[in-house]
Prior knowledge:
Elements: H1 3-22, E1 37-40, E2 44-48, E3 64-69, E4 73-75, E5 78-81, E6 90-92, E7 95-97, E8 99-103, E9 106-109, E10 113-115
Antiparallel strand pairs: 1-4, 1-10, 2-3, 5-8, 6-7, 8-9
Amino acid sequence: xTSVASAAVLAGVxxxxxxxxxxxxxxxxxxxxxxxxxxxxxxxxxVRRPAWNDGPVARPDSPVDHYVHRGDVxxxxxxxxxxxPSGPAYRKCGRTGSTWRVVRGGxxxxxCLRRN
Length: 116
């Protein structure tokens, strides 16, 4: 192997881990780069995870993953919209709505959040 070829191989070995570091290791790590933050305005709000037969959007009776409290700051770059023919999908935090914000652990009603 010539010195030029060995230098090219060595350069490839040294730069490859740096390129791998830019790719998230797990799909859950992709939310770490989100810069849009929201403050919880409701007193205690459930973060709900859609049941296996609910589809991609949570419902007011979906299983609770965990709770967040007033003043907590959450990152969310994605919204899930519940389409219902009869009107709003839920009534939470004193308002009706159909938009759920996707946060770590599940989804939370957008009416219980204030954008920072």
